[in-house]
Design a protein that fits this description.
Elements lengths: L3 H23 L6 H8 L3 H7 L3 H23 L5 H21 L9 H4 L2 H19 L5 H10 L3 H6 L5 H15 L3
Helix pairs in contact: 1-2, 1-4, 2-3, 4-5, 4-7, 5-10, 8-10
């Protein structure tokens, strides 16, 4: 017998999973709360109970990715050796990309509909700037910046190599990221 709290948690998680799938299939802008409710088989009021807006759903999905990256950046900020810090950041970032690809993905945080949400765009940009500062310091070169921005969207690679086991995908992404960032 399930408790009311367990049922509520299952429904909330169902809303997130359904929204994640619909956002990935048709984009954020083209997905409505009604579609999420219909696909999940609940009323729109039920979705509203957990998330007052579609943007609140998006923020919750974003949290799944940001919390781990923030922790990685906190840890990397304590490493004084720039080579070790870079290795830690690249390994941790690739781990997060693979994990997101297998769980959170394929929500595309480069989607113009998502980037059109000022709070979301600001949050993603702040995370990237923090990564940039932790990796390169106060005065990154243009090559460093370009490599980092290319690294922020590895979705074309993960989408085409989804058949690879996690270890192989991780190794591939690590090599790609290493090539994108100048030494």
């Amino acid at each position: 017998m399930t408790t009311r709290a367990e049922q509520a948690e299952r429904t909330r998680n169902g809303v997130l999973a359904t929204a994640r799938r619909l956002f990935a299939e048709q984009g954020y802008a083209a997905t409505s709360l009604q579609q999420i409710a219909d696909t999940l088989g609940v009323t729109k009021a039920n979705v509203y109970y957990y998330f007052r807006t579609k943007n609140a759903i998006l923020e919750s999905l974003l949290d799944e990715r940001v919390v781990s990256l923030d922790a990685l950046l906190d840890e990397a900020g304590t490493v004084s050796d720039p080579v070790r810090r870079r290795e830690l950041l690249l390994d941790g970032y690739v781990d997060q990309v693979v994990l997101a690809h297998r769980t959170v993905a394929p929500v595309d945080f480069a989607d113009p509909g998502l980037r059109g949400q000022p709070h979301i765009a600001a949050r993603l940009d702040a995370l990237t700037l923090r990564f940039q500062h932790t990796l390169f310091g106060d005065d990154p070169s243009l090559d460093e910046l370009a490599g980092l921005w290319m690294m922020t969207d590895l979705k074309p690679v993960t989408r085409r190599f989804t058949h690879l086991p996690d270890d192989e995908l991780r190794d591939l992404l690590r090599r790609v990221c290493s090539r994108l960032l100048p030494d």
